[in-house]
Amino acid sequence: MDAGDELMNRDLAVAAIRRQLGFRTDLASDITSELQIAQAELEKGPTKPWFLVSEDSYKRTTVGEQRLELPSDFLEEVEDGVLRYVPDTPADNSDESNEVDLVKEDYDILRKNYLLNTGGPPEAYCLLGKYFRIFPTPNEAYLIRMIYFKKALTLDTNIENEWLEHVPLLLMGSAGLKIATALRDSGAASVNESRMHTNRSYQVGGPH
Fold this sequence. Notes:
elongated
């Protein structure tokens, strides 16, 4: 939504979809669930929107541990947003001139290249499963800066998350379409069931 527009939170989105469905009062929880599912599907899509780019995030390596766990809200890396090693000076990390961009490479290549390396400051990394793997294996708790595509806040509570702030109609349209399709299919099933029984005679209790 543009600056100055009213807040679009979860409950307002649910109410707007209900209006489009004829003010159905029995669909609020279903609509909420579909909003959450639609968000998850959009975030798994091949193209990530700009508003899911995280702020700078920092995490320290563990001495003797190659793995650096992905942030809990991590979706995927940002193009040209490689990990960066941040020396501990200055303390406020305001000077980026001494930061080192880590080289990203395949795990097998890095494993061979650093096979005989006994450890040191981060130089390279790969993304493997739920972890970044840092090479050489850190021999101190080094500070790593990362920027990545992140999951938006989930609509478990009545909030305005990034999707409702920037592209509410996309999220609401995706969720509303699924609800409407389900209602249409349910209605069609009821009509077909009714047609199947029309003009038929049924005996209750079976033959005597």
